[in-house]
Specification:
The chain is of the alpha+beta class and about 425 residues long. Helix content is about 35%, strand content about 20%. It is an enzyme of class 6 (ligase).
């Protein structure tokens, strides 16, 4: 787990601001759920034999009542629980999004920590394949908004339960004929969750997996039509895609469309966003049967990709830096600075960082700090200026060093002169 400190935290705020603006344009509304949930929620929702439930969850017993609790390893199950408990679908489908920390006990890797952060979008209560496509278009729009280019989209369909059952039987039969080629993990999964064998990272098993029965070949007409509708909408919007018949995702709750956005620029941690349709999870968690589809992206991975691509992010700097030669003037100066802040100007007021009793520091040292702050202007509250009820506004960034004087009593009227136009 790691701290996120300035100036890196500014990159997080930049990404979050981009996401909020995009979600608003797509009519998705924010939902915030607890970090701690009952452990059975994830066991039911994600699947008892998934890696997350078996190996990665941080679970503990509540000392007050003995309840089994877990730090959320993902957010979809919690969002569904909240929707069910609040009867949120009583008047129709809902489009929701979230941001926040998740927790998995796994080996830390580039762009992945044991506390990591996800941003996700969920559309609950909608049957149509067009909503699957809408969510994919939403993610694709985010990459464009961030300036990311080397991201590819892979799709698959997991069909419906009866189609998966037929494929599962064929898959088990195929792997049983090749037991000597399976590693211990695959043998353990063979009868509990054979679909997850297709997601193996073992190089020695890749050839075997490539020849395994494909779920796509077991799809009925309705499932094929659903996938065709998704891809036709993507084509109409100029979004490139490819079918990956081995794409299964890591949770048991998916059906029909599954997808991942992948980059080759982050090594083995190439998936930056993934999701799909989960029409049975709401009922599984205790609600009235309703369809749903969603995705989640890894914030650390996306920001690593932004950094790798050399894309600029905004580092917040103040509009102005208040130079205060005399500590006795601080009450008056602070009232002017507050008026400017109230008018929308970002102002950093000088405050000495040395030992107590050293005073405010020389004008020269204050100007050095003003320049280092990145502020576009210095506000000079010198004795001569204050005697005339004025402040000197000095330009710091255009090379001219131009100065003007402004009235202390009318700060709100000239505040716009200081605001950044970037």
């Amino acid at each position: 787990m790691n701290d996120i400190l300035p100036p890196d935290s500014a990159r997080w705020e930049w990404l979050e601001d981009k996401v909020r603006g995009l979600m608003q344009r797509y009519a998705y509304r924010n939902i915030r759920t607890p970090i701690v949930e009952p452990t059975p929620l994830f066991v039911r929702g994600l699947g008892e034999v998934t890696d997350i439930v078996e190996k990665e969850m941080y679970s503990f017993e509540d000392r007050l009542n003995g309840e089994q609790l877990t730090l959320r390893p993902e957010a979809t199950a919690g969002v569904v629980r909240a929707v069910v408990e609040s009867n949120l679908l009583y008047d129709g489908g809902k489009r929701l999004y979230y941001m926040g920390p998740m927790f998995r006990h796994e080996r830390p890797q580039r762009g992945r920590y044991r506390q990591f952060h996800q941003i996700g979008a969920e559309a609950l209560g909608f049957h149509g394949a067009e909503v699957d496509a809408e969510l994919i278009l939403l993610a694709d729009a985010l990459w464009k908004e961030l300036g990311l280019q080397n991201v590819r989209l892979e799709l698959n369909s997991l069909g419906q339960p009866e189609e998966r059952r037929a494929h599962r039987a064929a898959l088990i039969a195929y792997f049983e004929q090749n037991l000597e080629l399976l590693d211990e993990e695959a043998k353990r999964r063979l009868h509990s969750n054979p679909l997850r064998i297709l997601d193996t990272k073992n190089p020695a098993m890749q050839a075997l997996v490539q020849l395994a029965p494909r779920l796509l070949d077991f799809l009925g007409e309705a499932s094929r039509t659903h996938l065709d509708t998704v891809t036709s909408i993507l084509d109409a919007n100029g979004v490139a895609w490819s079918i990956n018949p081995r794409l299964v995702r890591g949770m048991d709750y998916y059906n029909l469309t599954v997808f991942e956005f992948i980059t080759d620029q982050l090594g083995s941690q190439g998936t930056i966003c993934g999701g799909g349709r989960y029409d049975y999870l709401i009922e599984q968690i205790g609600g009235k049967a309703a369809p749903a589809v969603g995705w989640a992206l890894g914030v650390e991975r996306v920001l690593e990709l932004v950094k790798e691509a050399g894309l600029a992010t905004v580092t917040p700097v103040p509009d102005a830096y208040a130079v205060v030669p005399d500590a006795a003037t601080l009450p008056l100066v602070s009232s002017v600075v507050q008026a400017l802040r109230g008018a929308g100007v970002s102002v950093q007021m000088h405050s000495p960082s040395g030992a107590a009793g050293e005073g405010m520091g020389s004008m020269k040292s204050q100007f050095k700090k003003a320049d280092a702050s990145g502020a576009r202007f210095a506000l000079i509250f010198g004795a001569d200026e204050l005697a005339q009820g004025q402040v000197t506004v000095k330009s710091l960034r255009d090379g001219s060093g131009a100065q003007t004087t402004q009235s202390l009593s009318a700060a709100a009227q000239w505040a716009t002169l200081l605001q950044s136009t970037d």
